[in-house]
Amino acid sequence: MMAGTATIGQRLDALVATAQANTDGSAALFALVIGISVSFSFYLLNSGSGSTASAEMTKCGAQLSTCPKDNRTAIQKPRSPEDPPEPNWNALKLTNCVAATGFLLSVLKFASNASAYLNDSTSLLQFLSIWSVFLLYFFGFFGIALVDLDGLVEEQPSPAPAAKSRQPISPSKKIAKTVDVEPSPPVKVVNVHPPAKSAPVCSDPSSLKRHASSVPSNLKEMPNEEIAALVLQDKIKDHQLEKLLDPHRAVEVRRLKFDAKLKSLGNGGALNDLPHKHDLDYKRVLGANCEIVVGYVPIPVGLAGPITLNGESVYIPMATTEGCLVASTNRGCKAITQGSGAFSTILKDGITRAPCCRLPSAQQAAEVAIWIETPENFAELKRAFESTTSFGKLIEARPTVAGRNVYIRLKCFAGDAMGMNMISKGSLAVIECLRSIFPALSLLALSGNVCTDKKAAAMNWIEGRGKSVVIEATIPKDVVSKTLKTSVKAIVDANVNKNLIGSAMASVVGGFNAHAANNVTAVFLATGQDPAQNVESSNCITIMEETSDGNLWVSCTMPSIEVGTVGGGTGLPAQAACLRAIGVKGGGEKPGQNAKQLAHVVAAATLAGELSLMAALASNSLVAAHMAHNRKPPTASK
Fold first, then answer.
1. N or C terminus of the chain: which is more exposed, having fewer CB within 10 Å?
2. Is 276 a catalytic residue?
3. Closest Cα partner for 400 from 370, 420, 430?
4. How many CB atoms are located within 10 Å of the residue 462 CB?
């Protein structure tokens, strides 16, 4: 190398020395250019128009038809007017292209006369400054240009930050692995609906006021389908229909609206068999549901939701005559969907029956109990039980001795049935098996009340009966303030002192909640469950905590939800229609699948109801709301 020619490294050392001697000129320009670039990119990232996914969903809703499968979106937390604007991805892409072009041009210019620029400290410093800016920009933001816009719409954005929230699984993560021998099962497309735009609730009287909107002057002359389209587009509020039309026509329009929403979840036509005029097929009642029939009592049915439950949208049918219940539950659904969504898990699944058997002496009763607890002997009882049923599986036999009596609490898996008939039949087979070994054993009662059925009991609270479910959600503090009209601290404080301390002072069994029985009974009546089993199914403890970042975490633990999707009242047309609205009519693809989903829905309704009522109590608006909106002057009967 020639002695008079400096290397690139030496040139750089010289540049560093020059920069240290002149910190006001080139260095200031270098910092200014970087600052402008970063500021401009930050501005682009935080400006832009609304989501294309929301526009597509509005378009599909306006047509009163389900969106095409390729347009369905799985959005965990859809946009609302209160959300900040989304980034303008197209503008940022264009900026990236301009930056890339400028970078390439600067490289070409340097390459055209590299030797001269390398020997010119000022020119080399200019090139290095420009390239530094480009590199900072590329490393910081250029990756966004590679993002697929369709992927942004289809993926689920993260819910509000919460210490205990969980992320639902996006559709892209649910794709089964390819198997060489058998084809992969079809991927289930999850369509998550945005929170209800209008969620009036009695505890917030202002939400029921009629707001100014572009209501057509000829609304009453318009077809019901066109009015329903206006409701879906939020040009008419759902709760205004009765005032704008008449109560009967409002129901017809609302059915069209919900049918459009249910179609997108694969449950189109679910409400067809839900009567909204006076009608009942008494042939279906005969020999199945009631005797000495003289008529029927119509109970109004409302749909609360959508609520995001385990990553999917669900609408909850509720049959009730209590004003404000459905509206309040609907507000809870909205708050949950605006937050993390609800996540429900089944801990246990088994219906129970406890025959009461008597022996000649307490010693013999103890011998029977010890024999039952021996594993190989239980296997013999299991064979006898399962010989009477196709789906039932005996899980456990637990004896309890009281003097000469032995109460044998049998637990069985009952598939999609609630299971009382199934386990009663199997219990008789178990008793016959025991009699063959202990001839002195006699059956006093098929049900000895240790089951325990339709009674408040610590046994169910501790051991569980039916489906034992725990459900949770995290509600951002701004949603608590805007939707629930209270604060995280106030609602947590009210829950501790009312549901926990107050219930303990009353020595309740399983009643550590605000009004779980309200929501459980409403869903039970709508879906054909045994309403008397509301007693144990409403066992619930509601826990609310403030997270480390100030959000609200809420959970309901319900150890004994007793539900089924086949048998009993589930076969009546109206109740079957409500089950179809949830998507659980009849037996599931796997035994027990539909009944488990119904238990999840019951827990979700309870969680939403607990959340909304506790918010009303925390803000001291409950009584005033019910007095204003749950009282009607009597009208003359015709």
1. C
2. no
3. 370
4. 11
Q: Which pair of structure tokens corresponds to residue 539?
A: 């066992």
What is the per-residue pLDDT across 64-121, written as a single tens digit (0 to 9) for each?
544 443 443 333 444 544 455 555 556 666 777 777 777 777 777 777 777 777 777 7
Helix axes 224-232, 247-263, angle to 10 degrees: 60
The reply to whether 530 belongs to the active site is yes
- SS3 of 288, please? coil
Name the active-site residue from 56, 273, 322, 545: 322
Residue 198 token pair: 């209008």
Of residues 182 and 395, the one with the higher pLDDT is: 395
Question: 322 an active-site residue?
Answer: yes
Q: Is residue 445's pLDDT more than 60? A: yes
Q: Is 589 a catalytic residue?
A: no
Residue among 93, 348, 498, 626 flagged as catalytic: 626
* 280 or 554: which leads in pLDDT: 554
In degrees and rounded to multiples of 5, residue 234 shows phi and psi of 65, 25
Q: Point out the catalytic residue in the list 367, 478, 493, 530.
A: 530
pLDDT digits (tens, 9 = 90+) for 462-484: 999 999 999 999 999 999 999 99
H or E, element range at 552: strand 552-561
User: Any idea which of 122-136, 222-236, 335-349, 555-569 has the lowest mean pLDDT?
Assistant: 122-136
**CA-to-CA distance for 72 and 57, rounded, in angstroms?**
8
Write out the H or E segment, with its range, that includes residue 89: helix 89-112
Question: What does the alpha-carbon distance between residue 359 and residue 334 come to, in Å, rounded to a whole number?
Answer: 57
Give the residue carrying structure tokens 């991927």: 187
pTM score > 0.70 for this model? no
Contacts of 414 (CB under 8 A, 6+ apart): 350, 351, 391, 392, 422, 423, 564, 592, 595
Catalytic residue among 164, 454, 489, 629: 454
Tokens representing residue 45 in the block: 């990232």
